[in-house]
Design a protein that fits this description.
alpha+beta, DNA Polymerase III, Chain A, domain 2, 2 domains, 8-stranded antiparallel sheet, 4-stranded antiparallel sheet, 5 helices, 29% helix
Length: 241
């Protein structure tokens, strides 16, 4: 799969950008009980409701696309996470958008430039099946978890938000073995809360891009965390808990 296809699949998995189909108005159906006039009125009501729904979905819809610059750099994301990937073939030689027309598209390049202008603590993380499997196990149990990197070990604290939205229902067994020994020893002490799905999704993308190592740049628990590997830069906003 080429890089464009990988990014399309990756962005399509952003749950925070999916349309709210539960509130999407249903197309009216003609029935014997309705007169032509009544059915026409229902159609008009449907069209008005559909306009309102599309208006409410527009902020998400404009993010369900990504751009490829003339220099071959892909940029995309949401309010919570974003990516930049170099070395994208661009025979057009000019910026174009995939999945949309680029109208009102955010300045993701500016966001990345600001995020890459700071760095305090740095930590190397492996992109391997064991680490991804570890994150996948956590993702099944929780939405958000507190990560603590210290002395070459990653530990996940039990202070989490469960998928059931009820911490009393969360079994401590889920975190009994929630530790991962990093193969790259470090004395860096880093602690932050993050959406586990975002972290897992990023590492899966890195694996598909055949990246073997990710460098994590950390400033504070309330500042965006930056991840870099080969031609990929990824930024994830922490959760303040």
């Amino acid at each position: 799969m080429d890089k464009i296809a990988l990014l399309q699949k990756h962005l399509a998995g952003f749950k925070e950008l999916k349309p709210d189909n539960r509130s999407k108005p249903r197309v009216p159906k003609k029935s014997k009980k309705l007169t032509d006039e009544q059915f026409k009125k229902k159609q008009e009501q449907y069209e008005e409701k559909m306009k309102d729904w599309q208006k409410s979905d527009k902020p998400k819809a404009k993010l369900r696309q990504f751009c490829v610059t003339g220099e071959g750099t892909a940029l995309g994301g949401s309010a919570h996470r974003m990516f930049r990937l170099y070395d994208i073939p661009n025979e057009l030689g000019e910026t174009y958008f995939i999945g949309g027309d680029g109208e009102s598209y955010p300045d993701f390049q500016g966001v990345v430039d600001r995020a890459t202008s700071f760095s305090d603590r740095v930590l190397k993380l492996p992109v391997d099946r064991d680490f991804i499997r570890f994150l996948a196990t956590l993702d099944k149990a929780v939405d958000v978890a507190n990560f603590h990197f210290k002395d070459g070990k990653l530990s996940v604290e039990p202070k989490v938000f469960s998928r059931e939205r009820n911490e009393e229902n969360l079994k401590e067994d889920s975190f009994k073995n929630a530790n991962y020994q990093l193969s790259l020893a470090s004395d860096t002490d880093i602690r932050f809360s993050v959406n586990v799905e975002y972290l897992l999704s990023m590492f899966k993308l890195a694996q598909q891009l055949k990246i073997r190592e990710i460098i994590m740049h950390f400033v504070s628990p309330i500042r965006p965390v930056r991840f870099e590997g080969d031609s990929l830069t990824y930024i994830i906003a922490p959760v303040r808990s």
